[in-house]
Amino acid sequence: MTALPNGTVLSVAPTGVHSADDVPGLPVSPEEVARSVADCERVGASVVDLFPRADTVLADVVMAVRERSTQLIRITAHARSEPLGALLDSGADIVVCPLGAPDGFADDLRARAAALGTAVHYEATSLDELRKLPPDASHVVLVFDGQGMPGDVRTFSAALDLLPEGVSYTAAGAGDASMPVMLAALAAGGHLRVGLADTTEYAEDTPARDNAQLVARAAGLAKIAQRPPLADAAEVLT
Fold first, then answer.
1. Domain extents in the chain
2. Average pLDDT over residues 4-23
3. d(CA 87, CA 232)
């Protein structure tokens, strides 16, 4: 049996594509996101996952986060978001390529990231996407959203069976999948992503207070699982 990692990389996705009108307290402006990320770092997060938004400039968000936090910054590049050059020039440490992106976009992203020395991770939202994982992959973000990949044990196990040996992963459960995915990932040796981008409720009919509350819960579970949060994610993810 393969030994589990000694610790857990906790990532926080603070904003996503939600509207502040729909999610009270959602950090949106660069300053709001930076404050939220700093709060999350204090309770165990070592990576921040950022997504392009129409109402902010990603480079401004990255700069604000840098001023308040030492976390690794990972951005997800979508084909219909900001121009790829702007995403790669934003100053992030890691760029995430969705496995469902068009081939040309993915090839361009990998080539440009390699030229800049930026690490590339991959995102899978279905088992079919996971089967497209390129041979040079080292880390995958598995998103269990109840649609492409339900957050049940059978699907979680099937996803892990598709990962090549030596490829690590971060698991994110959206909505009702959040808790099952956290528990499964901790038991199976994975790393975790939580945050308001993935789930806006702390429990059924109980809105999450903020991102730090969600990170603190994940950190507590990681400690119970004897895989406490890692302060330095660079050694694991880059």
1. 10-237
2. 89
3. 24
Which amino acid is present at 59? A
- b (16+ CB within 10 A) / e for 140-150: bbbbbbeebbb
Query: Which DSSP state fits 7?
Result: S
3-state secondary structure 117-172: CCEEEEEECCHHHHCCCCCCCCEEEEEECCCCCCCCHHHHHHHHHHCCCCCEEEEE
Q: 10-237 — its CATH code?
A: 3.20.20.70
CA gap 185, 201 in Å, rounded = 20
Per-residue confidence (pLDDT) for residue 3, from 0 to 100: 59
Half-sphere exposure of 36 (CA within 13 A, CB side): 28
Confidence band of 1 (pLDDT split at 50, 70, 90): very low
* Residue 175, both tokens: 């909505």
- On the 0-12 / 13-18 / 19+ scale of CB atoms within 10 A, 29 is middle
* CA-based torsion, 165, 169, 175, 178: positive or negative: positive
